[in-house]
Each structure stands twice: as structure tokens, then as C-alpha cells.
């Protein structure tokens, strides 16, 4: 069952600044990409932060788990002076962590990332990239497909040992 996108964000004490159309245009210019409409719709609800705790089921194992990848946080589009994880840090973080080119980072901690993968054209796929294990795994053909496939973490069956 698809998740309720109106109930996507976890409650937080610290609300990020709202996302403006002008800042979206500046961000897309800086990143040299067109960001998916579904991503921008979520960031207009709340400009980044912790999700309610989702996972994306995977047919193939990754370094994270046998059957899924996590999606507990979505970076916002935040100016550098606002602090917090920002999609705009993608350029710096890809160099710092050795992530392949043409990635826009959505979530992760440096050891791994969920990314918008623009290596195949202007419509990004979603990828799992583990920088320590050198994994580069396709997750979904589009951000819309990724959102539609997210499930509540508590509904995901446990990995079988």
C-alpha cells in the first residue's frame, strides 16, 4: 500500500525555512539539473528533515539489508548559512566521499547515499551508493516510482539470516 504523502514528515521541533520558487530556480541552476516535481512537492510541505521512517524494498541485497534500503531522512534545499543537510551540498559531498558523477544526494551519512542519478539523462533514476562497500545499485527508474514504492519501516519483513 502506498504511503500517505500528506503524512510523510516526522514531527520536529526545528522547522526548516520554507522553500521558495526563486530558491528552487537558483538551486537547479547551481546543481545543473531539473529536480523532479514530486521531490519539490515534498520539500514545499517541509524543506527537509526526518521522514516518518520508510524503507524501499529491494529484490537484491545491499550492504544495508537483504531486502530494503532506508529512507529515514530527506535533505532539504537549504542555503549554506542555515545549517542542516542540504541537497545543495551534493557537489562537495560527492567529491569528499568519492560518489560517482552526476548525483544529487537525497539522504545518507557519507558511508552510503540515496541519490538522484543523472548519469543516464535529464530524468533521474534513484540509486543506492555505498562508498565503503563500493556499491552502486539502481533502486527505482524515477523519483515518482521510488515514492510509490516506499513502505513504513515497521511493515517491512525482517531480513532472513
UniProtKB/TrEMBL annotation:
Knr4/Smi1-like domain ranges (all copies): 18-149
Top-level lineage group: Bacteria
Pfam families (alphabetical): SMI1_KNR4 (PF09346)
Listed InterPro entries: Knr4/Smi1-like_dom (IPR018958), Knr4/Smi1-like_sf (IPR037883)
The protein's name: SMI1/KNR4 family protein
Source organism of the structure: Hymenobacter ginkgonis
Amino acid at each position: 500500500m502506498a504511503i500517505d504523502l500528506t503524512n510523510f514528515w516526522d514531527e520536529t521541533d526545528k522547522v526548516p525555512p520554507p522553500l521558495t520558487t526563486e530558491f528552487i530556480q537558483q538551486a537547479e541552476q547551481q546543481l545543473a539539473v531539473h529536480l523532479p516535481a514530486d521531490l519539490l512537492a515534498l520539500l514545499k510541505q517541509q524543506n527537509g528533515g526526518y521522514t516518518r521512517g520508510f524503507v524501499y524494498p529491494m529484490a537484491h541485497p545491499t550492504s544495508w539489508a537483504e531486502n530494503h534500503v532506508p529512507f529515514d531522512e530527506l535533505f532539504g534545499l537549504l542555503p549554506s548559512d542555515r545549517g542542516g543537510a542540504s541537497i545543495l551540498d551534493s557537489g562537495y559531498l560527492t567529491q569528499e566521499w568519492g560518489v560517482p558523477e552526476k548525483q544529487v544526494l537525497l539522504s545518507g551519512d557519507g558511508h552510503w547515499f540515496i541519490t538522484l542519478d543523472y548519469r543516464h539523462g535529464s530524468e533521474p533514476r534513484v540509486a543506492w551508493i555505498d562508498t565503503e562497500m563500493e556499491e552502486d545499485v539502481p533502486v527505482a527508474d524515477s523519483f515518482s516510482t521510488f515514492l510509490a514504492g516506499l513502505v513504513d519501516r515497521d511493515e517491512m519483513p525482517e531480513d532472513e539470516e
